[in-house]
């Protein structure tokens, strides 16, 4: 009897310990229901790098509204690196009070009062890429702080992460955000090194697929130990990734360089069109307070944005590639399609595309464009002009470093 009693006590004690342990199991799943179409917004890094302050952020929010960008879907105002001050004696992070004298809570309140959302930046390592305090070892404190400030979006970088494994590190910050309780978009900025498209969909809402973009259409900037990539180089790095993207989980080929002064108008159009075809986040990186009409017309083109924001969330695919001339297709809702004729070459290229002779099939998502059985109306997405139907071949010309993007409607 005594032995039986001891066994019962042992079982009971172990059960309590096991049950108590379960109270500390972390939730490594992202907040559901966010960014069911690719996020649209602005980020400070491409144009301003570390030169960020409260005045810039408020003025950018105002410009997003006055320019009409908010009306077409831009929502997030994201402060990148270098907003950080120091940690206090308890380890809680504070903003640089010289740059953000009103504090982040007041700034978030201002952004929210405009009907916009505020994003911040941190890093999985001990320091950010700009040398500010990283979140390593402070993940749960930082998440509580961001939630208290009213932050809506967190870009989480990968500098100074000695010895960390990416999946585990991003699961930690996801668990911290979950514990803090405020739904936030998590942007995984791991540069594609550890294949975040494999584990990222459960942990975050978007993940970088490559290193940083460089303000150039078709070139590489070599920094010695790492490289930045031109728009076309980033585009090429998306091969083989489309099956991982969809509503609430997006491949991220990095922020837009449109309006930053290095790309031609045709290159700007090609950049924006292809990010739309990729169902990529549309995060502008220019000075919204000082845009010319040409830049604004690109960033606010409703037809191109509609391609990007299509509810199916299917990433486009390259159909053909010959001598620097590429044809891309993207299935859209209601059986419609987007088509882009991208000219990467130094010369203009003529098009003679027989819709009825081409059999376009998306093998991954089981979509088919068959102009022999369905007649589509063709619209130029950039101009809005009707171009007839798919009964006739498309015959036109695309200038060098430019694009023709069409919408085919049933």
Task: Write up what this structure looks like.
It is a single chain. This protein is of the alpha/beta class and 410 residues long. 28% of the residues lie in helices and 24% in strands. It folds into two domains: 40-308, Aldolase class I (TIM Barrel), CATH 3.20.20.70; 317-409, Golgi alpha-mannosidase II (Immunoglobulin-like), CATH 2.60.40. The strands form six sheets. The protein has an eight-stranded parallel beta sheet. Strand 17 and strand 18 (367-369) form a beta hairpin. The longest helix is centred in the N-terminal third of the chain and has 21 residues, at 2-22. The model is unreliable at 2-21 (pLDDT under 50).
Secondary structure elements and pairings:
Elements: H1 2-22, E1 40-43, H2 45-48, H3 54-66, E2 76-78, E3 84-87, E4 93-95, H4 104-113, E5 117-123, H5 139-149, E6 153-157, H6 166-180, E7 185-188, H7 196-203, E8 206-208, E9 220-222, E10 227-229, H8 231-236, E11 250-252, H9 265-277, E12 282-284, H10 293-299, H11 302-308, E13 317-322, E14 325-331, E15 337-343, E16 349-353, E17 360-362, E18 367-369, E19 377-380, E20 386-389, E21 394-398, E22 402-409
Parallel strand pairs: 1-2, 1-12, 2-5, 5-6, 6-7, 7-8, 8-11
Antiparallel strand pairs: 3-4, 9-10, 13-14, 14-15, 15-22, 16-21, 17-18, 19-20, 19-22
């Amino acid at each position: 009897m005594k032995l039986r009693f001891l066994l019962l006590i042992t079982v009971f004690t172990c059960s309590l310990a096991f049950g108590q342990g379960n109270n500390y199991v972390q939730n490594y799943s992202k907040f559901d229901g966010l960014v069911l179409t690719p996020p649209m917004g602005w980020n400070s890094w491409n144009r301003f790098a570390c030169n960020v302050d409260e005045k810039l952020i408020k003025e950018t929010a105002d410009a997003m509204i006055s320019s009409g960008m908010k009306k077409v879907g831009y929502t997030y105002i994201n402060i990148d690196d270098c907003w950080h001050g120091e940690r206090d004696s308890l380890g809680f992070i504070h903003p640089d009070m010289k740059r953000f004298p009103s504090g982040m809570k007041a700034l978030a309140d201002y952004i929210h009062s405009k009907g916009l959302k505020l994003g911040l930046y941190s890093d999985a390592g001990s320091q950010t890429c700009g040398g500010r305090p990283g979140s390593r070892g402070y993940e749960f404190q930082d998440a509580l702080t961001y939630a208290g400030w009213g932050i809506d979006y967190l870009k989480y970088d990968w500098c100074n992460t000695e010895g960390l494994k990416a999946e585990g590190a991003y699961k930690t910050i996801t668990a911290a955000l979950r514990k803090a309780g405020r739904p936030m978009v998590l942007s995984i900025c791991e540069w594609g090194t550890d294949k975040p498209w494999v584990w990222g969909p459960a942990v975050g809402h978007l993940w970088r697929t490559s290193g940083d973009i460089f303000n150039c259409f078709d070139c590489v900037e070599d920094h010695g130990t790492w490289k930045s990539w031109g728009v076309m180089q980033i585009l090429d790095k998306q091969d083989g990734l489309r099956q991982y993207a969809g509503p609430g989980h997006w491949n991220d080929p990095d922020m837009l360089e449109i309006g930053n002064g290095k790309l031609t108008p045709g290159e700007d159009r090609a950049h924006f069109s292809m990010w739309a075809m990729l169902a990529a986040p549309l995060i502008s990186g220019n000075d919204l307070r000082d845009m010319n009409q040409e830049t604004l017309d690109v960033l606010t083109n409703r037809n191109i944005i509609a391609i990007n924001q299509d509810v199916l969330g299917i990433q486009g695919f390259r159909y053909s590639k010959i001598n620097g001339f590429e044809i891309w297709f993207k299935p859209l809702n209601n059986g419609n399609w987007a088509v882009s004729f991208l000219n990467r070459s130094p010369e203009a290229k003529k098009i003679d595309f027989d819709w009825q002779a081409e059999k376009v099939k998306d093998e991954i998502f089981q979509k088919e464009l068959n102009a022999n059985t369905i007649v589509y109306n063709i619209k130029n997405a950039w101009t809005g002009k009707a171009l007839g139907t798919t009964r006739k071949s498309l015959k036109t010309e695309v200038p060098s470093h430019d694009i023709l993007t069409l919408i085919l409607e049933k």
